[in-house]
Design brief:
mainly alpha; two-stranded antiparallel sheet; 2 strands
Length: 135
């Protein structure tokens, strides 16, 4: 972004100097008291095109930098939002751990007690007559 601004600034300065010091068939370009070049009309025209291209390059660099910064900020906002949601979930789970445990009712409260019997359901024989009885 800074390089883009510098390119734009340099392009503006060169354009202003080119316009300010024009005169006659040949144009002498000086900066800070130093003679830099003597240009004729077509050379000055080409310099103007180059300055315009440098200006456009600087402007393009500013646009790319601003889009990248916007995307980085959006990613940062999303990461902060996810961290806040994770912290909220963590706090909810910690609160659940601190709650008293709810005990499930034992099945014996729901079923009728079973009386042990030595007979089959039809009343014949004994239960311990099978082959799986421990002896």
């Amino acid at each position: 972004m800074i390089i883009g601004l510098l390119l734009i600034l340099v392009a503006i300065v060169v354009a202003v100097l080119g316009i300010a010091f024009t005169g006659g068939p040949s144009h002498s370009i000086t900066a800070f008291g130093q003679h830099l070049a003597t240009l004729n009309g077509p050379e000055l025209f080409a310099l103007g095109i180059a300055v315009g291209l440098v200006f456009c390059l600087g402007f393009w660099m500013l646009g790319v930098a601003s889009r990248r910064r916007r995307a980085t900020r959006a990613d940062l906002r999303a990461a902060r939002r996810q961290a806040a949601e994770a912290a909220q979930q963590r706090d909810e789970l910690a609160a659940r751990l601190n709650e008293p445990a709810v005990t499930a009712p034992r099945p014996e409260h729901y079923a009728a007690p079973v009386e042990p019997t030595d007979r089959y359901a039809d009343g014949t024989g004994t239960v311990d007559a099978g082959r799986h009885v421990a002896r």
